[in-house]
Sequence to fold (257 residues):
Amino acid sequence: MARTRRRYAAIEPQHAVETLIRTRTAELDQVRAASAELSRLFAATQDGGSDEVEIIRGSEALGRWFVRLQQEARGDVRTLDRPPYALTTANPVEETALGKGLAYRAVYAPEALEWPGVLDDIRRLVRHGEQARVLPSLRVKLAIADRRIALMPLTLDLADVRAAVVRPSTLLDALVDYWELCWQQATPLEGPAEESLAEDDRLMLSLLVSGLKDEAIARQLGWSLRTMRRRTSRLHELLGATNRFQAGVVAARRGWL
Fold:
C-alpha cells in the first residue's frame, strides 16, 4: 500500500501569525471557560465539608497540606502556579522528591516569573527533572498528586486564605482534566537544544512567546533592556521574523517550542 507523503508550502507570514493568534485565543477561551465552571463547582462546597471535599483555612494549614501532598505522592505531582504566595515562593520538598524519582509537571503563569528568584528556582528544578511550561491568563492555583488527591486555593486573597482538599470524586476528575487542558495549551519554558541558539536565547524565546513584557524578561535574565532588545533582534533575524508572534510560529515549526 502506497504511503501518502506530506507536502508543505510557504504561506504569507501575516496570515500565519493571524491564524496562530486566533487558535491561541480559542484555546485560552477554553481554559477560561473551564476555570469558571470549576469555580462554580467549588462555590457549592464552601459552606461545609464532605467526604470528598475538605475545606481548610489559613496560610499555615495550606502550607502543611502542600508539603503533605508531595510527601505522600508515589508517582507524580502536577501543579498550576501563580501569585500571590501565602508563605514562600520556594518549594524545598520538590528537589528532594525529584531526586527520589517523583515526576513533577508544572504550569506557571507569566506573573510568577516576575517574582524575585522564581525563574532561577524553576530553572534549577528543571535541571533536576521538572517539566515546566508557561500559560498566559492562568487564574487558578492547583496541586494534584497521583490523580488521587488535589489541593486548590479557593481565593487569592491572602487576608482570607481558604483551600479545598479534594479526594477521589467527579470533582477531582474535573480538576485533572482541567490541568491537562492547561498543560496542552502551555508553552515549554525551555525548548530543546539547538546548535545556533544559546541557552539564554532559548529561554528568552520561551519568555517572549509566553507573554512577558520586555522589561520583565530583561530583569529575569539579568540583562539591560538594551541588551535584551539587541538579542531579540538577533533572534528575529535568525528566525526570519519581524515580531514575537512570527518568531513563535517559526520556532514552533522548527521544534524549538
In short: The chain has ten helices and eight strands. The mean pLDDT is 81.
